[in-house]
Design goal:
alpha+beta; Ribosomal Protein S5, domain 2; Alpha-Beta Plaits; eight-stranded mixed β-sheet; four-stranded antiparallel β-sheet; 9 helices; 14 strands; globular; EC 4.1.1.33
Length: 325
């Protein structure tokens, strides 16, 4: 009753921001992401008779409190949903993703946990069922089941059975790169969950954000099919800015950006003006991700590394979906 799975993080190009159901983690809108090979989580789950409770270690450090609770609650969901019984598990994870800093650490974390736990229990889930299950641990994690470009369908049913991710294009379809610009690895003050809820409940800009998703999604999927980098980049960058604009209208208002976040954004625009096509996107955190093409990798990497306040630049290619080790 032991298995190990590896999942890569994904970065949304059309953002998921806000839930229609908090408990089932059902989104207010469809979203679309790119799975990356540069950030990943590897998790081993071993169910053992006689354990009094679940245990969890992250990067060889025993976890307690909220971290352990989130893992145990998700395992409870699996035990209940598949009628497993009261057997507990040891969970050991190795994570290359900065935690709670806007690099989607929970996406790779819960995707790897769901895959390893279900495999350890001998459950043969197809990708749709695994994505649907993973969504209930962390919404964006449902997209990390797949490689390449992935769409999370919001669904319409109250029970969430039609809310899961589907692959739009596989990892080998198009060689698009992304640079993760690390500005801070500190845990953010406003969590994604708290930020989403506050924005949905109080921001006067939120409804306009939701209304903008359908044309953005249609346009970016056309761009992916056509391998039109400028079209994909322009839509992704604009969608990101609209999402962050909703947080400025929340009560009380908040932002995830630092001065260095703005500096990276301005530098990316300057690169475009100089003839290097590059586009930024930012999730719920200060760090910036920059889309670029392989022929511009050296120029993009060098330019980003020289920005004051940049701690690291991690280059990624398009990543694969769940793998079992």
């Amino acid at each position: 009753m032991k298995a190990t799975a590896k999942a890569h993080t994904n970065i949304a190009l059309i953002k998921y921001w806000g839930k229609r159901d908090e408990s089932l983690i059902l989104p207010m809108n469809n979203s679309l992401s790119l799975t990356l090979d540069g950030f990943h989580t590897t998790t081993t789950v071993e169910f053992q008779e006689g354990l009094e409770k679940d245990t969890f270690s992250l990067n060889s450090v025993g976890a307690e409190g909220v971290e352990l609770e989130r893992v145990s609650v998700f395992l409870d969901l699996i035990r209940s949903q598949y009628d497993i019984g009261p057997i507990h598990a040891q969970v050991q994870s190795t994570n290359t993703v900065p935690t709670a800093a806007g690099f989607a650490s929970s996406a790779s974390g819960f995707a790897a946990l769901a895959a390893a736990a279900t495999r350890a229990l001998g459950l043969e889930l197809d990708d749709t069922e695994l994505s649907r299950l993973t969504r209930q641990g962390s919404g964006s994690a449902c997209r990390s089941v797949y490689g390449g470009f992935v769409e999370w369908q919001m669904g319409e049913r109250a029970d969430g059975m039609d809310s899961y991710a589907v692959q739009v294009a596989p990892a080998n379809y198009w060689d698009v790169r992304m640079a993760g610009v690390v500005l801070s690895d500190k845990m953010k003050k406003v969590s994604s969950r708290e930020g989403m809820k506050r924005t949905v409940d109080t921001s006067p800009f939120y409804n306009a954000w939701v209304d903008s998703i359908a044309p953005d999604l249609a346009g970016i999927k056309d761009g992916i099919r056509e391998q039109n980098f400028e079209k994909v980049g322009e839509i992704a960058e604009a969608n990101c800015l609209k999402m962050h604009a909703t947080t400025l209208g929340a009560v009380p208002p908040f932002t995830y950006w630092l001065d260095s976040t703005m500096a990276v954004m301005q530098t990316v625009r300057s690169m475009r003006d100089a003839g290097v096509p590059a586009y930024f996107t930012i999730d719920a955190g200060p760090n910036v991700k920059v889309l670029y093409l392989p022929e511009n990798e050296e120029a993009v990497h060098t330019t980003l590394r020289n920005i004051p306040g940049v701690a690291d630049v991690i280059l990624s290619r398009t990543g694969q979906g769940i793998t079992y080790l």
